[in-house]
C-alpha cells in the first residue's frame, strides 16, 4: 500500500478510534467498576501518577459484578425482551405503512417525485422532540384524535392511547417511516418496467406480476429499511418515555433511569454494553446483506 | 403485384402471393395516437403464418408502437388488429397467444435461467413434469443446458439473449415478437445469432415479427421487410425486391448505398426505356422504368454503387458512360467504394470487389476513370 492510500485510510480510522472506540472503552471500564459516592460516581479511577503498580491495582479492582447483577434481576432481561418485541412489531408496522408509500412514489409521474420525496424528508426539518410532543397533543384524552372521533360519533368515550404501548408504536412508526420508505423507494425506482411487461406477456395478471416480480425484487430495500428501523428502535428512549406508560418497558428507558435517577453509572454502563452486544447481531446481518446486494449488482 | 412476377417455384415460401392463404395477423386501418402525435397512421398490412416479418425504420417511425400493439401493451386508437381472424384489441397481454422478446431481454434477475424459462409455463398451471420437460426442450433448443441453474447476471450477453428467446418461445406462441433482439450483441455474435434465429424460426414454425433499425439484420433474417416512416409502411416486400426495386426514393435511400439523380424523363424509345435528362449539356441517362411513364415526368434515377462499373479505359459499346476523377476511396476490406467526381461537379459512387491485394489495386486518388452501367441496372422512381 502506498503512503498516500495509507494516509487516506488513517483519517476514518482515527475518527472511529477517537469517537467510537475510546468512549466505548470508557463505558466498558465503568461497567466493570463499583458505584461510589464521589465525582465521578464510581471507583476505581485510573491514577497514572502511581505508575505501573497503580495500574495493576486499578485492574485488580475491576470485576463483572454488575453483569451478574443484570442477570439476577428480572427487570433487565424483561426490558431487553420487551424492547425486542416492541422493536420487531413496530418494524413490521413501519414496513406495512412504508411499502405502499414507496410504491406509490415510485409509480408517480416523474415530475411529482421530487415533491413526494421532499414530503417524506420534510419532518426532519423540525426537531424530533417537538414532533413527539406534537403526538402527545394528538393522542391525549383531550387530544385532536379523540376530539375528532367524538365529533364523528364513532366513539362516545375518549380512547386512552397516550401512555400505552399503542402510542409507542405510533411514535416509532411515525419517526422511522422515512428510513423504511427511502430504501424501498430506491429499489422500486430502479426496477425495470419491462420486467413487469414481460411478466404480463408471459401470462401474469397485474397483481401476479407484483407478487412474483416487484415484491421479490424490492426485498433488498425492504430488508435494508427493516434494519434501519429495527436497530435504532431497539434502543429507543425518547418515544417510550414521552408516549409510553409506566408499563412500557424498554431498555433505553431503564438505562436512562439507572444513569440519572439511580446515579448508578456502573450498572447503567453494563446495561449499555449488553445492549450494544445485542445490537451487533442485526448490524452484522445488515452489513452482510448490503455486501451481498452490492456483489449481486456488479 | 403489378411488377413482373418472379418465376414462381412451388417450394418458394411466399404466402403473400397466394390469394388462398389466410393471413395470421391483419392490421385493418390501424391508427394510434399519443395526444397530438400520430405514431401509426391508417396502417393496413397482412402478415402470414410462418413468416419472418421485419419492421425496419428510423427511430420514431412507429415500428415499436406497432409491436407493442401486437403484444397488447398499447391499443389502437382506430382500426382493428386481427389474430387468426379474431379482433385482439380488447384482449389483455396475459391472455394473448403472443409472446415478446424484449430489447433489454427483461430476464427476471431473481430467478435462474430454468426458472425464467418456466415462468410462463407455470402461469398456465401445467403439471410439474410437463413444465420440466418443456424447459429442458427449450434449453436444448438454445444450447444452454449447462447454464440452467445460473442467474442471469452469471451468464454472458449472448447467453442472456438466448434465454430471453427460449423464455418467449416456451409457451409455443402463435406469434413471437422480437424487439431489437440482437441490438446489445457485438457484430460477430450478432451475425452468428441471426442465422441461429432463422434456424430456430424454421424449426419451431413460429411466426416472427422483428423490429430492427439495422437494415442488414432485416435483410438477412426476414422473409419480408416493411420499411416504415412516420407511422406508415412505405414498402412491404422481400429483402431482394426492397433492395433491387425500391418503389420510392425514400426506400432506395434508406436501404443501402445509392446514387440518386433527379431529372425529366422522355420515353421516345419503343422498348420501354426512357431517357432521363438530368443536367444541361449532358448525355441523358438511359434507364428502364418498371411502369411506363409519361413524357416530361419528373423522376429520380437510382442506382446502387456496386452496379456502377469503373474502368481506366473508355468502355467500348457500353451505355451510360461518364468520365470523372476519383476524389475519395472508402476501403471496406472486401469492397472499395470510389467517389468519382464528374466535370460538372456531381459525385457518383462506384463499388467494386477487391479481388486483388491492395498494392496491386488498379485505381488510386486523383485517377481519371470511366464509369458506366447497363440500361437495366438502375431504377426510375417517380415517388
From TrEMBL, chain A:
Q: Where in the cell is it found?
A: Cell membrane
Pfam families tied to this protein: BPD_transp_1 (PF00528)
The membrane topology of this protein is: Multi-pass membrane protein
Q: Which GO terms describe its cellular component?
A: plasma membrane
- Membrane-spanning ranges: 7-28, 80-103, 115-136, 167-188, 222-245, 265-286
Specify where it is mainly localized.
membrane
Tell me the InterPro entries matching this sequence: MetI-like, MetI-like_sf
Q: What is this protein called?
A: Putrescine transport system permease protein
Upper lineage ranks?
A: Bacteria, Pseudomonadati, Pseudomonadota, Alphaproteobacteria, Rhodobacterales
UniProtKB/TrEMBL annotation, chain B:
Ranges of residues in domain ABC transporter:
25-255
Q: Which InterPro entries match?
A: AAA+_ATPase, ABC_SmlMolc_Importer, ABC_transporter-like_ATP-bd, ABC_transporter-like_CS, Mo/tungstate-bd_C_term_dom, P-loop_NTPase, PotA-like, Transp-assoc_OB_typ2
- Write the record's keywords in alphabetical order, separated by commas: ATP-binding, Cell inner membrane, Cell membrane, Membrane, Nucleotide-binding, Translocase, Transport
Record flagged with keyword Transferase: no
EC numbers, comma separated: 7.6.2.11
* Coiled-coil blocks: none
GO cellular component terms listed in the entry, alphabetical order: ATP-binding cassette (ABC) transporter complex
Q: Using the UniProt record, name the top-level EC class of this enzyme in a single word.
A: translocase
Which Pfam families does the UniProt record give? ABC_tran (PF00005), TOBE_2 (PF08402)
A single GO BP term for this record reads: putrescine transport
Which family does the record assign?
A: Belongs to the ABC transporter superfamily. Spermidine/putrescine importer (TC 3.A.1.11.1) family.
Its biological purpose is as follows:
Part of the ABC transporter complex PotABCD involved in spermidine/putrescine import. Responsible for energy coupling to the transport system.
Q: Fill in the subunit field for this protein.
A: The complex is composed of two ATP-binding proteins (PotA), two transmembrane proteins (PotB and PotC) and a solute-binding protein (PotD).
Could you tell me what this protein is called?
Answer: Spermidine/putrescine import ATP-binding protein PotA
| Source species of the chain | Tropicimonas sediminicola
Per UniProt, what is the name of the gene that codes for the protein in this document? potA
Amino acid at each position: 500500500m502506498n503512503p498516500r492510500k495509507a494516509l487516506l485510510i488513517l483519517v476514518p480510522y482515527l475518527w472511529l478510534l477517537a469517537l467510537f472506540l475510546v468512549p466505548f472503552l470508557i463505558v466498558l471500564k465503568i461497567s466493570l467498576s463499583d458505584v461510589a459516592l464521589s465525582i465521578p460516581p464510581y471507583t476505581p479511577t485510573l491514577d497514572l501518577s502511581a505508575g505501573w503498580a497503580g495500574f495493576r491495582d486499578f485492574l485488580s479492582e475491576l470485576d463483572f459484578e454488575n453483569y451478574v447483577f443484570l442477570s439476577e434481576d428480572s427487570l433487565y432481561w424483561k426490558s431487553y425482551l420487551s424492547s425486542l418485541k416492541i422493536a420487531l412489531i413496530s418494524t413490521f408496522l413501519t414496513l406495512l405503512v412504508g411499502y405502499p408509500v414507496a410504491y406509490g412514489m415510485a409509480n408517480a409521474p416523474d415530475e411529482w417525485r421530487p415533491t413526494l420525496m421532499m414530503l417524506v424528508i420534510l419532518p426532519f426539518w423540525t426537531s424530533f422532540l417537538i414532533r413527539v410532543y406534537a403526538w402527545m397533543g394528538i393522542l391525549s384524552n383531550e387530544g385532536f384524535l379523540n376530539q375528532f372521533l367524538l365529533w364523528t360519533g364513532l366513539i362516545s368515550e375518549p380512547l386512552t392511547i397516550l401512555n400505552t404501548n399503542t402510542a409507542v408504536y405510533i411514535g416509532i412508526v411515525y419517526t422511522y417511516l422515512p428510513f423504511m420508505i427511502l430504501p424501498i423507494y430506491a429499489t422500486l425506482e430502479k426496477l425495470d418496467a419491462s420486467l413487469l411487461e414481460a411478466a404480463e406477456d408471459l401470462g401474469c395478471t397485474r397483481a401476479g406480476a407484483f407478487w412474483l416480480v416487484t415484491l421479490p425484487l424490492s426485498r433488498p430495500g425492504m430488508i435494508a429499511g427493516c434494519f434501519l428501523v429495527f436497530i435504532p428502535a431497539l434502543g429507543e428512549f425518547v418515544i417510550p418515555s414521552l408516549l409510553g406508560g409506566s408499563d412500557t418497558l424498554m431498555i433505553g428507558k431503564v438505562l436512562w433511569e439507572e444513569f440519572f435517577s439511580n446515579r448508578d453509572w456502573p450498572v447503567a454502563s453494563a446495561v449499555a454494553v449488553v445492549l450494544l452486544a445485542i445490537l451487533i447481531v442485526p448490524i452484522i446481518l445488515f452489513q452482510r446483506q448490503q455486501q451481498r446486494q452490492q456483489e449481486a449488482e456488479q | 403485384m403489378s411488377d413482373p412476377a418472379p418465376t414462381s417455384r412451388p417450394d418458394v415460401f411466399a404466402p403473400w402471393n397466394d390469394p388462398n392463404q389466410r393471413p395470421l395477423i391483419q392490421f385493418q386501418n390501424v391508427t394510434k395516437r399519443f395526444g397530438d402525435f400520430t405514431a401509426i397512421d391508417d396502417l393496413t398490412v397482412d402478415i402470414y403464418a410462418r413468416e419472418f416479418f421485419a419492421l425496419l425504420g428510423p427511430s420514431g417511425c412507429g415500428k415499436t408502437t406497432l409491436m407493442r400493439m401486437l403484444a397488447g401493451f398499447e391499443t389502437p386508437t382506430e382500426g382493428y388488429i386481427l389474430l387468426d381472424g379474431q379482433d385482439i384489441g380488447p384482449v389483455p397481454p396475459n391472455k394473448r397467444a403472443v409472446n415478446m422478446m424484449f430489447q433489454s431481454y427483461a430476464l427476471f434477475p431473481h430467478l435462474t435461467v430454468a426458472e425464467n424459462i418456466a415462468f410462463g409455463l407455470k402461469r398456465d398451471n401445467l403439471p410439474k413434469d410437463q413444465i420440466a420437460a418443456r424447459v429442458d426442450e427449450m434449453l436444448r433448443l438454445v444450447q444452454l443446458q449447462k447454464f440452467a441453474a445460473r442467474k442471469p447476471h452469471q451468464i454472458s450477453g449472448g447467453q442472456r439473449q438466448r434465454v430471453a428467446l427460449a423464455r418467449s418461445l416456451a409457451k409455443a406462441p402463435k406469434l413471437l415478437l422480437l424487439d431489437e433482439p440482437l441490438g446489445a450483441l457485438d457484430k460477430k455474435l450478432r451475425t452468428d445469432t441471426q442465422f441461429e434465429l432463422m434456424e430456430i424460426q424454421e424449426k419451431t414454425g413460429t411466426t416472427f415479427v422483428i423490429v430492427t433499425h439495422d437494415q442488414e439484420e432485416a435483410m438477412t433474417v426476414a422473409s419480408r421487410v416493411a420499411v416504415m416512416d412516420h407511422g406508415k409502411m412505405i414498402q412491404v416486400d422481400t429483402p431482394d425486391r426492397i433492395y433491387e426495386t425500391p418503389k420510392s426514393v425514400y426506400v432506395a435511400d434508406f436501404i443501402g448505398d445509392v446514387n440518386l439523380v433527379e431529372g425529366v424523363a422522355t420515353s421516345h424509345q419503343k422498348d420501354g426505356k426512357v431517357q432521363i435528362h438530368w443536367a444541361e449539356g449532358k448525355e441523358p441517362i438511359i434507364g428502364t422504368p418498371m411502369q411506363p411513364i409519361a413524357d416530361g415526368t419528373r423522376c429520380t434515377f437510382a442506382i446502387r454503387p456496386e452496379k456502377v462499373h469503373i474502368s481506366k479505359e473508355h468502355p467500348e459499346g457500353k451505355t451510360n458512360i461518364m468520365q470523372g476523377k476519383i476524389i475519395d476511396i472508402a476501403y471496406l476490406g472486401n469492397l472499395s467504394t470510389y467517389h468519382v467526381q464528374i466535370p460538372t461537379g456531381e459525385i457518383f459512387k462506384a463499388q467494386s470487389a477487391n479481388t486483388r491485394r491492395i498494392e496491386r489495386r488498379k485505381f488510386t486518388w486523383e485517377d481519371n476513370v470511366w464509369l458506366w452501367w447497363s440500361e437495366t441496372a438502375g431504377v426510375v422512381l417517380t415517388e
